[in-house]
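Lecture notes, unit on protein representations.

Consider one protein chain, 115 amino acids long.
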Amino acid sequence: MKKTHIIILVGIAAVIVGLLAYSVDFSTYDTVNSAKQKPGKFVHLIAKLDKNQPIQYDPINNPNFLAFYAIDSLGGQTKVVYRNSKPADLEKSERIVMKGKMEADHFECKEILLK
């Protein structure tokens, strides 16, 4: 092989490694208490719906506002505000994975995944 071919192959390999490094999500799940210690930082929380607290959702007057309380596996509780429509079967889900930022008095959720 010529030196130019080897240099091109090494360059292509470096680009592929770079793209893979940026496409992989290295984030970990935080607890409610650890998220409270990182206000304004984007985190992932895994919790379950607190069924003892009411769910605030009015599809007629404000279909893009949902508020509920979530409890993590260590017992930490927080109010969650999701500015989108209510996911189907929220009440039936075993776990909720939430991506967002902790604000002063609540977790501002950008994305919800139900499990």
